[in-house]
């Protein structure tokens, strides 16, 4: 089981837009996650809750406990947004929230309560391929603002960041300890990069408060083609619902909402939603 009493830098999260909780999982637990990812989580589709071999990432108390501390609430909500990746190639600055380009939109009217968790299943303290973030960019709209940070996460760490923060996958860690700009089209000399630590695997999940930000984010996510397809092919069974209940999660069964909804998933790319 994960170590549930690790300190969480709550003030740092709200100031910088992210924090890393150290040593939550043992190397053996991380290896078990890697094995489960290779097996598809025990299902052919769906978010983590619909995948029996990866369901515990949501329900073992680690992410939930961190979310409770950051959000100062025991009422933590989950709306079906989670995934795992193996050797993904996506790269480039972006935000995950619904209102990414409009500072007058609802996402920017109050503290943002939707959190993205990331567990990188290999070392990135000395290896390339990790996460880039722009420090403090959860409070600004432009993607160009904020210090470019390469997150040097170790095996067993849990990262958590605001879904308003500017970030990029597949970061580059150079041998001199610096990083590159993910939007730079010019490839870096491979001899300057640190090595990868085997196959790059990561697990992601969104948790938050059951509030107007959660409702708006879900309304947005239901418009996205890739996510609607994930949910349509990954309906929750009784075991999944019970596991969420036993963990104390407030569950919104979005997979059932989109199953027969012809309007879900119409946007292949991000597009603003009305307000």
UniProtKB/TrEMBL annotation:
SUPFAM superfamilies: Clavaminate synthase-like. This is Phytanoyl-CoA dioxygenase PhyH.
């Amino acid at each position: 089981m994960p170590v549930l009493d690790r300190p969480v830098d709550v003030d740092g999260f709200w100031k910088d837009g992210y924090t890393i909780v150290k040593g939550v999982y043992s190397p053996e637990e991380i290896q078990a996650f890697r094995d489960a990812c290779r097996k598809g989580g025990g299902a052919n589709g769906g978010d983590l809750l619909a995948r029996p071999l990866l369901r515990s990432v949501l329900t073992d108390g680690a992410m939930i406990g961190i979310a409770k501390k950051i959000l100062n609430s025991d009422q933590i909500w989950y709306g079906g947004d989670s995934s795992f990746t193996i050797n993904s190639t996506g790269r480039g600055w972006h935000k995950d929230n619904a209102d990414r380009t409009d500072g007058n939109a609802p996402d920017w009217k109050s503290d943002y309560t939707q959190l993205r968790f990331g567990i990188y299943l290999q070392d990135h303290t000395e290896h390339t391929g990790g996460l880039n973030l722009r420090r403090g960019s959860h409070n600004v709209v432009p993607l160009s603002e904020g210090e470019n940070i390469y997150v040097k996460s170790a095996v067993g760490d849990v990262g958590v960041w605001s879904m308003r923060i500017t970030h990029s996958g597949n970061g580059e860690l150079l041998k001199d300890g610096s990083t590159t700009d993910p939007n730079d089209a010019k490839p870096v000399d491979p001899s300057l990069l640190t090595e990868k630590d085997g196959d790059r695997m990561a697990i992601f999940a969104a948790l938050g408060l059951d509030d107007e930000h959660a409702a708006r984010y879900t309304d947005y996510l239901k418009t996205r083609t890739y996510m609607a397809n994930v949910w349509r092919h990954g309906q929750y069974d009784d075991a999944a619902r019970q596991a969420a209940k036993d963990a104390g999660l407030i569950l919104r069964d979005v997979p059932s909402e989109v199953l027969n909804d012809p309007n879900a998933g119409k946007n292949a790319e991000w597009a603003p939603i009305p307000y």
